[in-house]
Design a protein that fits this description.
Layout: H1 3-12, H2 17-31, E1 39-44, H3 52-55, E2 59-65, H4 68-74, E3 80-84, E4 98-104, H5 113-122, E5 124-135, H6 143-147, H7 156-163, E6 169-176, H8 181-194, H9 208-226, E7 236-242
Parallel strand pairs: 1-2, 1-4, 2-3, 4-5
Antiparallel strand pairs: 5-7, 6-7
Length: 245
Amino acid sequence: MDHQNYVTMAEVQDKHWWFRARRAILRRTLARLKLPPAARILDAGCGTGANLRMLTEFGQVWGMEYDQFAIDFANKIPKTTIAHGFLPDDIPFASTTFHLVTVLDVLSCIESDGEAIAALAQRLAPGGWLVITAPAFDFLFSSHDRASHHYRRYTISRLIAAVEPSGLEVRFSSYFNTALFLPIVMIRLMKKWLRLLEGDDVGVIPPRWVNQILLHLFKLESGIIGRGWSLPFGVSVLLVAQKPQ
């Protein structure tokens, strides 16, 4: 991801509807895993720390990131330890195994996604969990994906195919950002056909009232997914896998 994208992320990650609603979905998902007290958690590709505070609710958090600005920004968040690293070949904290590893909208930026998952699986403790979110459906590939240096978008089956060779067992999968799927499809396709509004539009916070409406619509899905129910389509995909005991 370009350095400027990290700067933009740092500015909007606590306010933008998308970041806030995704954290709500992740919080409900992680609560169902019954992690041990003081669980060791690795956020692989933590960026500027959009999810680190939420993750500290479940244990002690480590993060890895490539960009130095992002590392410095994320290191300001209490109760976390952030270090330089990249997937699949340079995962820090070599003496530590983790009860939970999160890969949140990172896998699509890695050319060898299967190798990255296999490397992270080796760092999981027996019974540990891998939680992945990723952008869904190649036909939604847009200027945002290009700005974020995405190689691909995923279907559930494509993501499962990348995870299963690592020996992890898939426990749950779902699409999300379903309520806004149709308007986002229309906007993405219009941009593609008319070549309008090029650039990364996720960094733009809409007017406050619009931001609140979108937030509440998206957050409704946290209750559905939090009960273990899967959604049949969406702009993003979620997968939870476990390392055998």
